[in-house]
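Continuing from the previous page of notes. For each protein in this section, the sequence appears first, followed by its structure tokens. Read the first protein now.
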Amino acid sequence: MRKSAPKTSQSPGPQPLRPGIALRQRGGWREAIEVYGEALSLAEAGEADLARTVLGDFHAEHRKILVLAETGGLPEGMASYSVNLAERLGFDLVLLSVGQPERLPADCEAQAREGARQLFEEAARRGVACSHILRQGLRDEVLSMVSLELRRVEFVITSRPEAARKQAALMVPEFSYRC
């Protein structure tokens, strides 16, 4: 039989952070275990209402597929595949368009909207929730940042070769669609 640790009224205080290590990693199983652990701790401490709130907020958030659009938009096959997969899994789609840092934001926005049109039309026909994020910067940095910012991103779909995927070091799985 396991012994439970003695309960104290004070928390141990903030732990020092080591550079390069994130305490909260978003996405899939990691986030689920984190949220369930937090809810369990609250419930054990007698805060049942707060535990239910934590779980409710987590389950209210839809799971997402993040789709990376290349400069020229999304290939037709990749758009259909992404929408079909999201429909079958019951996930939302988030299209991420990354503009080069040296380009004017207005140029990037116009090209990104045109590249997203086909995905949005297909998603609307099939009843899949879809949103679009436009960021400027270096592709791998933006992809890593957005995959951590969004809640419940289950995986990323790109058309990048495997060698480029390995360099990105994402916290969520990345799959390549071969066009």
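Done with the first. The second protein uses the same format. Note its length before scrolling.
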Amino acid sequence: MELFAPEDFKINIQGVTAAVTEHNVGDQQLFRVEFEDGRNPLNVIRASTVNGKMWMSVPQGRLKEAELAGQQISEYFKNKK
């Protein structure tokens, strides 16, 4: 058993439930968010920028959704402890 095995969990983004799967890609942790309302899945990472850490979509272009999903992902791990 891995010490930090990837997890699958659910979050709620503005009233929509989304299934989250965690993946390790190289040295980067990526989260795939699949929405129950049928919109396209979203891949997000926590990136370091000159302005600090922020959630970003991969590929870029869905920053607002990435920020909302990232906040819920952070809350999930914060409350899990």
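What the second structure shows: DSSP finds one helix and five strands in the chain. The helical segments are 63-80. We return to this in next week's lecture.
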